[in-house]
Amino acid sequence: MTGHPAREARPFVAISTKAYFGAAHTRAWIRGVVTMAEMASRRGIEVVVFPSFPLLESAAHLLEGSGICLGAQSVAATDDGAHTGEVTASLLAEIGCRYVEVGHSERRRDHGETPVVVREKVAQALRHGLIPLLCVGEDEPGPREAAADRVVESVAETMSGLDSAPVVVAYEPVWAIGAAHGAPAGHVAHVADALRATLNGRAGPWRIVYGGAAGPGTATALGGCVDGLFLGRFAHDLHSLDAIVREIGRCWTHHPRCSPPRQARRSGRTAGPPQGK
Prior knowledge:
alpha/beta, eight-stranded parallel β-sheet, 11 helices, 40% helix
C-alpha cells in the first residue's frame, strides 16, 4: 500500500475454534473451510484456521495444498525441555503452523499471562519462524482515545526491539468478545488509526485486524479501516464463514483500508452482529 511500505496488502481472515469442537467436528469443519480456498484465493484473501492443539497435525494434512494457513491458539514461553504440558514453538513449526495466537484476553484472564509472558511467547514464536497474532484490547468500554492509548502501549511494549519482525495485531476490545454487538465502527477506526501510526515505521510486515462480536456485516460496517477480521463462533458455521469471506472480498475491493464510511462514523454503527466472538 502506498505510504505503508511494510503493511501487508492481502486481506486477512483468521478463525479460532477455541475449545468448542471435538476431533471429528474439527476435521469436518476444516474440510468445509478447504472448499472455500479457491474462492478466497480469487479474492486475494489469506485465510488462517486455529484449531485445538491435539488436532493441529490432522489439520495440517487436511489443509495441505489448499493455500489455507494453519495457526495455533497458544505457544509456550520456553524452549524445548522439561516443561510438562507445554507446546513449544519449535514443535508448532515442525507440524506446519505459520501463525500463533499470543496474548488473547482469555489466556491473560484464565492463565495469568502477564505482559512479560506475552513478550516471551512472541519472542519464541519469532525465533522459530512463526508469525504472532498479537491480541490487544481494553477491558471495559470507554473513550476511544483511552482505548487507543492502551493498545498502542501494549503493542509498543511487546514488540520493542523487534522492528524487523512480522506481526498481525488483532484489536479485540475485551468487553466486545461474546457481547451482543461489536465496538462502534468509529471507535474501531480511531484505535486502528493509532495502531497504524505506531506500526508505520516498522521494517517488518504488519497488519491490523478486528475481533470481538465479529461476523456477517462486520466488514461492511468497518468499511476497510482494518486489514481483516479475527473470528470466533460466527465462523464456526460454514455458511456464515463463506458469507463473511465473500463480504470481505467485496468490501476490501471497494474501500481503501483506512477509515470506515462517514455514515458509520456518525451513527456509531457497531462492528458486528449479535452473539459473536
